[in-house]
């Protein structure tokens, strides 16, 4: 069964009772949308993202096979997002001014993205009128009319449209009365009244609650909106309302293991704490180590300046590959000639010529979709030939959302919740599809291995068997040379990582390192902008195994890289564990060191990172890390 992006898009649109006119507004013609829904045309990545986010879903959970040109565009966007996050404004402006070759709908959407970034730049420089002008210009690129919608969103909007609308809210909040009146006259030249900022942010929250139905897509916007509503309430001395918004935000941060707007919420709570009359109210939401937590956040940001090879860590959460790279790498792995690539399985027909395939492999030509799919099937990649692919297949999008929730709870070792969702998913998924079968069996195995003891030999055998459902010649994978690379789905790469985890559990750390490094090389050397989530996980696993092998300096460097990626992706899934690993490495170095001065230094760092890890674990309610630190402190005589 092959479910195209068009099928999924159509099902989502109809389920949400969104018309083709609403979805395509300012993006493409209704005729083009119809062709996309029929599977006759693939959208560019920026159009894909706009459509999916208008339907309130997270585009970053798809596996995308793009042209080399589009992959490079995504790489540039990732780089610019990093510059925004790290407040490197001069470098951001330089990047923005570099010419980028984009065409058709992508050009208009990239121009909208440029307007967004220029508006961010001018806001930082407090040139608020120019920031508003760029914001409105960006919205107009996709025919969103401020005048028509006034201060309430009366239509569905894409991710970048919503980012611009939130940015306008921040500009209005920070600027003076003159700027706010200026904005109001842009909406209605006859109206010179000052805009109602509270109403504006409440309207944004209403839209997010109603239309951003995917919890991960919704999260960042929801937290942003809650924070600014809390800030407005604080400024107006409505402290109970402020605390109520803060409670909602912090609850989401803890539940979703996120760091989005964490520092801002904590600073607001610190300001509330200084209001002596609120002593009882603040006990409801403040924890004991607020100041320490703020110090930890600030210190984590210093890693930006220390991290080596920053570029390899800047990647979005989704799996992004270029069709050109996939064809070239997989052909070389399979040992096929370019002439063999042109033939059908019966050897009678010819697709293209050797010169054309060479241009494809060098990124100078993008094959037509039908020809590209032929090449992928010819290379044994049947089931992976859709360019916009979800991890498991089925017309009901609910199975995707259940899968993402299931992955989240497994990653955070919340086994009872994972079991509950697995049972729901099991009833909905079509098990006859090999990729669905692989995912369900792999997930069931992970739940079983965490829930009850399982021998490492049994775990390894089952992992290899599950991987063999979709990967031919698994035996070759065991002895694979460094230069060889197949094309793996995200789930297949996770299975290989889990093989490493089984060896890790078996205390065969050298074999664990071999498999971890295999996955790391795959993303680092072959697909450099793909899958930040898996890359972060494999880096953390490597940091652990380096430490267990006694390579403490390497472990520390990997841990810092993990912190860097967690910060970029606004995740906190492994934050306290990474800090613990840093403390553990320094503790082991302390035990082995004979030089008393160095020993004291290592002890200081051990105490510091254990203290930080304990604080973060308390906030995110990770009892496993808390109990582990208590034991280690007692064993190593480390003070609290």
UniProtKB/TrEMBL annotation:
Record GO terms (molecular function): DNA binding
InterPro entries in the record: Cro/C1-type_HTH, Lambda_DNA-bd_dom_sf, TPR-like_helical_dom_sf, TPR_rpt
Pfam families: HTH_3
SMART domains: HTH_XRE (SM00530), TPR (SM00028)
Top-level taxon of origin: Bacteria
Record domain HTH cro/C1-type: where: 9-43
Record protein name field: Helix-turn-helix transcriptional regulator
Organism annotation: Candidatus Scybalomonas excrementavium
